[in-house]
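Researcher: Let's try something more involved. This one mixes different molecule types, so please make sure each is placed in the same coordinate frame as the others.
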Amino acid sequence: MGAHEASKVIHALYNDDEILMDAVKKVKGEHHHIEEIFCPFPVHGLDKAMGLAPTRLAITAFMYGITGLSVAIWLTWYTMIHDWPQDIGGKPNFSWATNMPAFVPIMFELTVFFAAHLMVITFYMRSKIWPFKEAENPDPRTTDDHFLMEIPVHGNEEELKTLLAATGAVEINVVDKH
Amino acid sequence: MYQFSGRLKTLAIAFMVLGALGVALGFYNAPKTLEDAKEIMANQAAHGAHGNDHGETKHVEETHTEKKEDAHAEENHSAENSHSEVIVEEVQADSHIEDESHSEEIKEVLEVEKVHVATLDTHDSDNAHGASHDDAHAEHVFHQLQNRPWAALYVALLFFLGVTLLVLAFYAIQRVAQAGWSIVLFRVMEAITANLLPVSLILLAVLVASLLHMNHLFSWMTPGTFTPGHENYDPIVDGKSGWINAPWWMIRSIIYLVIWNAYRWFIRRNSIKEDTAENISTYKKNYNVSVIFLFLFMITESMAVWDWIMGLDPHWFSTLFGWYVLATFLVSAVTTITFVTIYLRSKGYLPKVNDSHIHDLAKFMFGFSVFWTYLWFAQFMLIWYADIPEETTYYAMRFNEYKGLFLGMVVMNFVFPILLLINSDFKSIPWFVVMGGIVILAGHYVDVFVMIMPATVGAQWAIGIPEIGAILFFLGLLIWTTFSAFAKADPVAKGNPFLGESEHFHYYNIEHRGEDADAHH
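Model: All components are placed in one shared frame. Result:
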């Protein structure tokens, strides 16, 4: 029961995603908080089992798409109609609306471009990852064939160890988190 | 086993009888003689809705469309251009003297089409055949009025044939892809394809009737089209006579229908055999035959669409037309599968179908709606951009006479499904999917309508008793064939090796209503 007890965590390692899923449900069923799970690949349904709120990334993607569409409309209007009217193929210029079919591919592409790129950037920011960042991964085996569940310890180390052992963990370590 | 319920049977029969009555009434009301047609035209003029002014524009436009292409083929370009300018002025000058409103309309046509040479020809021919003009116009409208019940039947017929055929193709894709999710829907898809044989036979009858000149659906069947020197001689169509000629056209039509029906007959029989098969060989055989069918289908579908739809406008062509129509029928087919599935599930006959299956079907409805829009727009944009007269006539006709339907269907087939089905949660709510599906089906019927009507009835279109009658008839037929076929086999394709995967199918992102939320597989 030292002063650094608050930063103590348990790392439980699993070697199968199905066993992990059952373990997560059991741990949540006992009302323990799961801080983080590290997986070598996405495990469908894990977020729900952990009790994480649904992602809002899709909503941002929609808004980014609308932004891209607006930028495309402005861009085609400004460059092709307003600033320097372009006459291509004898189409009526000085009017964005009557030239609209020619701009649909641009509108489509910029919608996709904005939605995709900004969504990825948002994902990076929300996940707090960026180029050249040191890996936070506590155990390199989670990039290969192991799954790691991290649970903070609040004076219940032995209880947690027993519980995790019963869920089929292949290894249980208590570590000090820095 | 499913029992085709008495109520549904009654509904199907009622649809067929009512529909047949509507179709018959359409034929009965069609003008029998030129005099009848003139009377109808006089009535239209009096009512003003499809009034005289409007009718006049149509006529100018149609005439010049035909003339223009002749001119285009025969004359050389520089000659056309040099005197077209002069003629435009002449047309406008003359019109001013004659009739103010008339000139407005001609100018409108010019703006829409920018086919100056064409107007010149119209103008010339109007002068030359001044007296016969009215009669020629009356006869043209007479043929269009006579075509209307045929065209109404033809639109609904092709729509339901296309839907049934694409259900078959979608099913073949499931087999070839060895898809796991859809096995519990196999018997639903097979049941819908039972409609293929009756609609094929009706189509054959209509095609034969066209060849026997019982209707004027296909302008290239007009006697004299291929005879140089004849008044109906059409050099452009004659140039395509290696493909567009009655015997070869009919033989091709029969070949397509035989291939499709043969696969349907084989795969249905062998799919039922799978249920009791002792080894995997039946399944493998079905796989192989489906591969061959899909290969043949992709070729025959495109060609059938050229022959049966694009052939209505024999001057016009679009290289992605086959794909475009494929997309129309594909999204309608998936919607039909969804409807039948939701109905049978609600009656408890498909206990293995869960929310994820509905979700997947709705995803296909959504995805193929976007795919359809992509092709619709790709075809339009290239023609709009290039602005070549023989291509733009197709859209000029649709923008002039069918604007509401033509643009309305884009809202129905694109905007509506996008807004309704983009949300993942909505895709597994049956009533929501049904609501989106009804709009999709109506929108794609309109799509087929706008493909066929301009070339067959021109400005004389309406959505009335003949059109609705034809839809009801084929809808009744589809219900009858589908549910009686579904009653004839085990509702679950229990011999399929992927059945377990399909039963346990759970899209991770949704929860199945009425099921233990903790259940995962």
